[in-house]
C-alpha cells in the first residue's frame, strides 16, 4: 500500500470531480489517499508523508492558477523526489493535448521550478447553469469558436473518464515499490536468540 496525495484547486466543479474519481480508483486498489483542495490544507500537511502526488487544476486561463503555482513553488523539492503528476481540465483539451500545452508547461516551470513527470489534459466545462454571467459569456464564445453545441439548460462535461482511469492506473505503476518485509529467522537462528537459563 502506498500513500498518495491528490491536491487540486477547486474553482472548477469538474476538477473536483476528476480528483475525487482518481482518489476512488486508487483507494479501490488498496492505497491510502488524501484528497484535498489547496485552500483546505493546514500548516501541518507535508508531502514528506507521501509516496506520490497528483496535482490538478483548471486550465482555461492563460496561465496555471495561482494556488497551484504557489504550492508547487513552495514544495518543488518534495515534488521532485516522488512521482508527481498533473492533470488540467480545459474545454479545448478533449481528445489530446491543446496546441499551447508545451508553452504552458514552460511557463509553469519558469514560475515554480517544477516540471511534472506526466500531464493529462482533460476536456471539461463548468456547469453552465451554475456559472456567473461572465463565465457564461466565455463559455458561449468558446463554444462558437470550436463549433460546439451548447445546451444552456444542461450541464456539459465532456470529460474522458477512460483517460482518467488510465492515468490513475499508470500513476499506480509509477509508484515506488514498498520495501520487502524483514526475513523470517530460520528455526536454528531463533534458538540462538533465546538466552540460556541461568542456574541459581
Order of helices and strands: EHEEHHEHEHHH
Can you name the CATH architecture? Answer: 3-Layer(aba) Sandwich
- The proportion of residues in beta strands is 5-15%
Shape: globular
The CATH C-level name is: Alpha Beta
> How many strands appear in the DSSP assignment?
5
The third-level CATH topology is Rossmann fold
Determine the fraction of residues in helical runs and give it as a percent range.
Answer: 25-40%
Helix- and strand-based class? alpha/beta
Put the structure in a nutshell.
This protein is of the alpha/beta class and 200 residues long.
Describe what this molecule looks like in 3D.
This protein is of the alpha/beta class and 200 residues long. It has a single domain (3-124, 159-192), classed as Rossmann fold. Helices cover 38% and strands 14% of the residues. It is built from 7 helices and 5 strands; from the N terminus they run βαββααβαβααα. A 5-stranded parallel beta sheet has the order 2-1-3-4-5, covered by helices on one side. Helix 4 links the parallel strand 4 and strand 5. The radius of gyration is 23 Å and the shape is globular.
Descriptive tags:
200 residues, Rossmann fold, 7 helices, 38% helix
Amino acid at each position: 500500500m502506498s500513500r498518495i496525495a491528490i491536491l487540486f484547486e477547486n474553482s472548477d466543479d469538474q476538477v473536483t470531480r476528476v480528483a475525487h474519481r482518481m482518489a476512488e480508483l486508487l483507494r479501490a486498489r488498496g492505497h491510502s489517499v488524501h484528497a484535498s483542495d489547496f485552500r483546505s490544507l493546514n500548516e501541518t500537511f507535508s508531502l514528506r508523508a507521501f509516496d506520490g502526488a497528483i496535482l490538478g487544476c483548471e486550465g482555461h486561463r492563460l496561465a496555471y492558477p495561482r494556488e497551484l503555482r504557489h504550492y508547487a513553488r513552495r514544495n518543488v523539492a518534495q515534488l521532485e523526489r516522488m512521482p508527481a503528476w498533473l492533470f488540467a481540465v480545459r474545454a479545448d483539451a478533449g481528445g489530446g493535448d491543446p496546441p499551447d500545452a508545451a508553452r504552458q508547461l514552460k511557463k509553469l516551470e519558469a514560475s515554480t521550478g517544477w516540471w511534472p513527470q506526466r500531464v493529462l489534459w482533460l476536456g471539461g466545462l463548468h456547469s453552465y447553469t451554475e456559472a456567473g454571467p461572465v463565465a457564461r459569456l466565455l463559455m458561449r464564445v468558446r463554444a462558437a469558436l470550436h463549433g460546439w453545441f451548447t445546451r444552456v439548460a444542461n450541464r456539459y462535461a465532456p470529460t474522458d473518464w477512460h483517460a482518467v482511469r488510465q492515468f490513475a492506473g499508470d500513476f499506480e505503476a509509477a509508484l515506488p515499490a514498498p520495501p520487502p518485509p524483514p526475513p523470517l529467522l530460520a528455526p536454528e537462528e531463533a534458538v540462538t536468540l533465546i538466552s540460556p537459563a541461568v542456574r541459581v
